[in-house]
Write the structure tokens for this entry.
Amino acid sequence: MGKDFYLAFSPERIDPGNRKYNVKNIPKIVGGVTPGCLEVAKALYESAIEVVIPVSSTKAAEIVKLLENTFRAVNIGLVNEVAIMCDKLGIDVWEVIDAAATKPFGFIPFYPGPGLGGHCIPVDPTYLSWKLRTLNYNARFIQLASEINTAMPLYVVNKVAEALNEGRKSIKGSRIMALGVAYKEDVDDVRESPALDILRLLRDKGAEIVYNDPFIPTLYLDGLELQSADLSQELLRQMDCVVIVAAHSAYDWEDIVAVSNLVVDARNVTKGIKTNPGKIIKL
């Protein structure tokens, strides 16, 4: 190794749907098993990527990725808990975050949502936590954040139940649509999507579930094949509740709110839309 062949590790760094940052202009982390391995791998990546960042080992390269995703998971867990606290205090968490984000130092805005999704952020931190348990160390921040984040789909479903209850309805027997089942906006990836848990919970509570997602024509939920419903005004009027899970840019939120009976907005995309009190419920 380092003579007959060269071995290095470089973690994935990509943000699906991001129009500003791509493979070419995202700095690339690389660690080699030997100095020669690092030199060759660095030269290879520099032929295609603008900035290559060498680190001392393959282990260091891997934990860079784990730190990046753990940073996001922990901060999202924090802001999800803040959202729950603000709800109990009768405060708009979105207003609080926007105001805090005006501070020019010492604060990075993160936003609450229906739960984590994708193949990295929900998985990598828990892998790191598991690895540390094998070394008799308890990664407490990771575990707490994971508990909060994985509970968010149930929190959203409880919001739906409370909103329906105000109209003297129950989840059982109600027609409920999930808008956007991808794990984030403008992508066609449902891996670890919180929408799957939300739909399962609603179905288990007796709801008639429907979904629409322009990126996901077919969805498999515990062996059940679902088709993306055509998003029409007639269909929206038939729904007892519409739950906004993924904020796809193709959606016209004002039109959706205008014809829907009840909207539970887990992404704050209805910010600024004027409607009857109680029609829009946010986290």
About this structure: Strands lie at 8-9, 28-32, 52-55, 175-179, 208-212, 218-221, 224-227, 241-244, 263-265, 280-282. The radius of gyration is 22 Å.
